[in-house]
Amino acid sequence: MSQLSFDDNNESHFRILYTIYCQLMTTDYCLRYGSHWEMIGFQGTDPATDLRGAGILGLLQMLAFITEYKIYIKQTLKIFQDIKIPFSITLINITTFVLVSLKDNKLNQLINQEDSVISVINKLYFAGFHLLTKILKKEQITFHTIGNHLTHIRKLIHEQPQKLIREFHSDIQRFYKINNI
């Protein structure tokens, strides 16, 4: 999936993009091209150009995150918008970090325990992004300083995946309990 590029001739590819946008913006309509994509953190009018090394997997992980944790993700989007850090681009970067760990066989133990590659990479993706969100809430981060934090998160994804996943599960349960969800 990471090697699969966005294909305008594949209707399911646009449906994934469409669903991401509509879920995040609470609407039921969006066009394939336009400046509206920048509102959810793509860099321009065509989000397909931002998929880089993540391919369709980057979009599928975004969709999984939104589907599983919609309320949390929508609150997080607002944080990113307020400090002008590109939300979707950041999520795609997290996908590439997880892919590196997968390719370097750093996730084998977790995959064997769960007997599912997709479950492990999605959990680690959620956890990596959540860690960044926690940092954003605590520190003054700008577009120019986020790189250092992303480097730190990439390292933790690579070296401490189990710990990241555990912390995410604990934090997300607390989030939903506090918000009575």
Automatic annotation (TrEMBL):
It holds the Pfam family ELMO_CED12. Residues 12-161 form the ELMO domain. PROSITE patterns: ELMO. It comes from Paramecium tetraurelia. It comes from the Eukaryota. The lineage of its organism: Eukaryota, Sar, Alveolata, Ciliophora, Intramacronucleata. This is ELMO domain-containing protein.
